[in-house]
Amino acid sequence: ARAFRQLDNLDAYSLDIVGSILGSVGFAVLAFVHAPPLVWGLIIAAVLLLTIAPRSVPTTALAVLPLVPLLAVWGADSFDDDTVWTPYYKTTVQAAPAGVIALVNGVPTWYQHAVQDSPIYQTVYERIAAAEPGQVLIVGAGSGNDVSAALARGATGVDAVEIDAHLLDLGRRHTDRPYDDPRVVTHVQDGRAFLEQTDREWDVILFALPDSLTLLTGQSAIRLESFLFTSEAIEAAHARLRPGGVFAMYNYYREGWLKDRFAGTVADVFGVDPCVSSMFEDAPLNVITASDDPASLSCPPGEQWTRPADVVPAATDDRPFPYLRERAIPQFYLATIALILAASVVAVRLVGGPFGAMRPYLDLFCMGVAFLLLETKHIVQFALLFGTTWLVNALVFIGVLLSVLLAIAVTRRVTITRPVLLYPALFAALALAWLVPGSALLDLPIVPRFVAAVTLAFLPIFTANLIFARRFKDTADSTAAFGANLLGAMVGGLLEYTSLVIGYRNLVLVVAAVYGAALVSGRRYLNSV
Fold first, then answer.
1. Is 303 within 8 Å of 277 (Cβ atoms)?
2. What is the DSSP letter of 297?
3. Do the Cβ atoms of 221 and 500 come closer than 8 Å?
4. Strand ranges (DSSP E) for 23-179?
5. CB neighbours of 397 closer than 8 A, spacing ≥ 6?
6. How far apart, in Å, do the first and last CA atoms of the chain sit?
7. Measured on CA atoms in the order 296, 242, 110, 319, is the torsion positive or negative?
8. Mean pLDDT calculated for residue range 4-29
9. Is 177 left (phi over 0), alpha (psi -120 to 50) or beta?
10. 30 and 40 in contact (C-beta within 8 Å)?
11. What's the rounded Cα separation, in Å, for the pair 465 and 404?
12. 400-438 per-position pLDDT tens digit
């Protein structure tokens, strides 16, 4: 905030964006090389020390002292032979008779079992009428248990999809060595993206306990697997089945309504009620199997699902929240949002100065709100179109920041005499983004899909940043102006949780309304240019 006062407004803003781009590129590089926490921490510490080097000794000490215990903790985790750090998880492994037990982010997630000792993984095949499963697709194949079971049942081929390459490597320790079998082909990919980007068909498609336990980004309420459990995802799996093929999914559905929601989703897509098998009396582990052809299933008496009167509607690509029962923001979220907002207000006030100095920049506050909402919406859209992988996230962030940098460059070189005319262009771009939902692009081949997605995402972002850069260029107090914008960005990031109620498509309407408020509150500036 103080550094902004020392530079030309656009110079300061450009350096801020360039730093963010370098940070995003650094994230991608460190994720690609699977760097342990200590490497990340040392880089952060070095950049921080470089930033404050000209400061006084007490200031430097104030920054350095907290780094020492932090780096010590990260160092201990980095050199733990039983811990593997991936772009998504901290995975701790423990020895087991059939391989390893994996604790993902501290939660026991899967146990490797020899195929003859794992009745859990046999239930799917016991519900299939055919003696052999044929070609099998397994989404969430990591541990190797499901792959081993498919091979033992006589599968002619297995496509094993796992989003995390490290978990796949752990799966190779399985005592049955399923990944060494020539019938198995592995794919390090998001499961939904794999289904959307292939034209192959299988006899059996299995969603094998694909819980991520991890959010897509800190800017969204979506987990890595959320798009795998929407009605559109089940439709994508249904479209990839051969005639008479069988779809199955299993998990620990700890809430009865959740089991019924997924069973109802499968029933809506396949047009027949699925078979729902409970594996244990004392644990809510259930297998849901379905097929267009009833003769393809062997469903024991009493396991045919019956739709309850109050079944929760299916999650959709627009509202991909399968674990949210009601259209509401949970109270825990509301309390957390209130605390974050309070901390943001205090921090901006302490560093950015009195709020009275920010009052003339209400339009910049609104732009911050709208921009974060717009950025989050398109991060989610790209996750749907191209997968919820760390690489897609990094590329989207870099793309957004490059569009901001391009807007700054245009503002430097082109004098926009009537910036008010940029608002109709912005609203037109937002209208186009609302009229063409992300799911409408899924049927396009990968290259046209990418071109269309980039156009829909970056056209409003670029236009919005032309408006912001032109406004910010002539502000009298860049620190107060940027403080107002940053506080707005925090509010926008928190408003993203309204998508739990209205969905991501309608988030564009909120963005348009907030940019409308920016237009009204900044009309004096726009008329004076």
1. yes
2. B
3. yes
4. 83-85, 90-96, 99-104, 107-111, 135-139, 157-162
5. 24, 379
6. 26
7. negative
8. 91
9. left
10. yes
11. 6
12. 999 999 999 999 888 877 888 899 999 999 999 999 888
**Structure tokens of 145?**
């248990």
Q: ∠24-30-36 over CA atoms, to 5°?
A: 135
How much is the average pLDDT of 429-452? Answer: 87
Say how many residues make up the chain: 529
DSSP class of residue 189?
S
Distance CA 202, CA 316 (A): 24
Question: In three state form, how does the secondary structure of 322-369 look?
Answer: CCCCCCCCCHHHHHHHHHHHHHHHHHHHHHHCCHHHHHHHHHHHHHHH
Half-sphere exposure of 194 (CA within 13 A, CB side): 22
Please give the radius of gyration of the chain, using alpha carbons only, rounded to the nearest integer: 26
Running DSSP on this structure, what letter comes out for residue 474? T
| pTM score, whole prediction | 0.87
Place of tokens 């398109």: 378
Question: Alpha-carbon distance 425 to 248, whole Å?
Answer: 47
Paired tokens of 79: 């050199």
For the segment 366-383, the average pLDDT, to the nearest whole number, is 90
Say how far apart CA 350 and CA 397 lie, in whole Å.
29
Say which residues have a Cβ less than 8 Å from residue 312's Cβ, sequence separation at least 6: 257, 258, 260, 261, 264, 325
Return d(Cα 167, Cα 518) in angstroms, integer: 47
Q: CA 138: distance to chain centroid?
A: 21
Q: Is the pLDDT of residue 218 over 60?
A: no
* Sequence letter at residue 208: A
Q: What is the 3-state secondary structure (H, E, C) of 145-156?
A: HHHHHHHHCCCC
Tell me the backbone φ, ψ of residue 183, rounded to 5 degrees: -75, -10
Three-class SS state of 313: coil
Cα(451)–Cα(473) distance, integer angstroms: 31
51: Cβ contacts below 8 Å, ≥ 6 apart: none
Give 503's contacts (C-beta < 8 A, 6+ positions apart).
Answer: 316, 318, 319
- Alpha carbons 54 and 434: distance in angstroms, whole number: 49
Statement: residue 214 has pLDDT above 70: no
Retrieve residue 410's tokens. 């245009």
Site of tokens 């991890």: 214
Task: Give the three-class secondary structure for 285.
Answer: strand
Q: What is the mean pLDDT of residues 272-297?
A: 87
Question: Which residue is it, tokens 């299988």?
Answer: 202
Name the 3-class secondary structure at 427: helix
Helix (H) or strand (E) holding 237: helix 231-239
The 10s digit of each residue's pLDDT in 85-109 is 888 888 888 887 777 888 888 887 7
Nearest to 105 by CA among 86, 123, 122: 86
